Amino acid sequence: MDAIVDAKCQSSSQQSGHLMLITPERVFYAGLLGRPRKRCPGAFHVYVAIRDGLHLSTSEGRESHGELAVTMPNLRHTITSEYRSAICVAIEPESVPDGTLEAVARRLQGPDSHLFANRIRNAYATLAEMQHRDAIANAEFDEMCFGEALPRRVLDPRVMRAVARIGRFSGEPVTAAGCAAEAGLSPSRFLHLFKEETGISFRSFRAWKRARHLLHFANQDLNLAHLAQDIGYPDSTHFSHSIRRFYGLKPRAIFVGSRDLAIYRTGQAGSERALT
Question: Residue 169 has what DSSP assignment?
Answer without folding.
Answer: -
